[in-house]
Amino acid sequence: MCTITEAAVKTGFSTGTLRYYERIGLVKKPQRKPNGVRIYTKGDIQLLQALTCLKEAGLSLGEIASFMKDNDWHELGFLDGDDISNRNKVRILENHLQKLDAEKQRLESAIALTQKKLAKYSKLFNEK
Question: The pTM is what?
Answer without folding.
Answer: 0.61
